[in-house]
Structures are given as structure tokens and as C-alpha cells.
């Protein structure tokens, strides 16, 4: 595929919601170790709400930016946990990056992806190394942008981004949390994967498989 429309983004939200639902228990377990055990529930509530809200839109008349803003609103309304505003901001920034476009070229998808990662970083004010979802999103976005800039196609660029997200999430094991709920544990957060980084791998994997599978 070389261009993506609202119908494709609906499929993307279907894929993300399915991936989160399938691993909901594992995400709650990860959050149970260094947080409050609700991350899988929060992400499932958010992405199920986003999937349902965008499914109700008319793909023939609604543009991608409007779909992403709809997803942002429904995600925020559905989630009480800190992942709520983080992903809502991601989708709002993704919307701003593709505003006014009826269809998205590969470069627009990369720009949307990069804007989502930046939105999470801006909203949470976390830098890489603080043991958060930023440790998966930022290297993924950087890898996608670099790969696309070097002439790789969308499938390859998102594949490289996914691998970077996996490595980034794995690396959170060796980090001490300094942002979010798990920062209260200090050094006791060492040795465990951050749940938000683990769910980011699922989200990024579903974006990849739905848009570039
Ligand atoms: P809560 O901690 O409110 O229960 P969740 O369990 O849904 O929220 O999400 C926890 C995840 O949110 C963490 O694993 C981490 O990845 C992410 N997170 C928390 N605070 C921040 C932040 N300031 N910036 C980026 N990500 C954060
Ligand atoms: Mg939690
Ligand atoms: Mg909570």
C-alpha cells in the first residue's frame, strides 16, 4: 500500500485494541510488580473505546486527522490512569501532523508516528532512561524517521521501529524509575520491565502490522 485513508486507520485501531486485549493480563502483571496492577485494564478500556468511537465514523467523509482526534477524546474519557492523557496527547499530535490530508503517504505516516512519540514525551515530561513508555516510543520514532529518510519503504521503516521499541522496552529492566507511580520504588524498580514500555511495543507492533503488514 502506498496511501492510507480513514478506513485504514480504523483497521489500525482494531489491530491495537486486539493486541492489547490479548496481552491485558500480562500488562496488569507487569504493573503489579512496580505499579498498581491496572495498566492492562487501562489500556484495554482506552483502546476499546477508541476503536468503537472511530468505527462509528464515516470513512468516506471523515478525514484521518478527525479520526485521530476522535480516538484521543474517547481514550482520555475512558482511562483514569496516567496512560490516558499520554495516549490522548499522542493521538492529538498525530492528528495535527496530518491535518487537512484526505489520504496519507508513507511520509505522512512516519510524521504521524514521530508526532505521537513526541506528544507522549511532552505530556509526561519524561526523558529516555526514566523507565517509561518513552523508552520504547522515542527510539522507535527515531528509527522510523531515520530508516524512512535513508530511503526504506514504510513496511521496512516500521519493522525497524518495532525492533527498536522491543530493545527499548527490554532495556527498561536495567533502569530505575524516576517518573510515574513506580518512581516511588526507587532502586527497587530495578530488574523489571516497565509496563508502559511493554504496552508501547504492542501498540507499535499493531501499527506496523495493520499499515505495513
Ligand atoms: P497509573 O500509573 O496511573 O496506574 P498506568 O498503569 O496506566 O497508569 O500506566 C503506567 C505507565 O505509564 C508506566 O509504566 C509508564 O510507562 C507510563 N508513565 C507514567 N508516568 C509517565 C510519564 N511522566 N511520562 C511517560 N510515561 C509515563
Ligand atoms: Mg497502573
Ligand atoms: Mg492506576
From TrEMBL:
Coiled-coil zones: none
InterPro entries associated with the record: DhaK_L_YcgS, DhaL_dom, DhaL_dom_sf, Dihydroxyacetone_Kinase
Top-level taxon in the UniProt lineage: Bacteria
Keywords of the record: Kinase, Transferase
SMART domains listed in its UniProt record: Dak2 (SM01120)
Domain DhaL: 7-209
SUPFAM superfamilies found in the cross-reference section: DhaL-like (SSF101473)
GO molecular function, one term: kinase activity
Protein's recorded name: Dihydroxyacetone kinase subunit DhaL
Gene label: dhaL
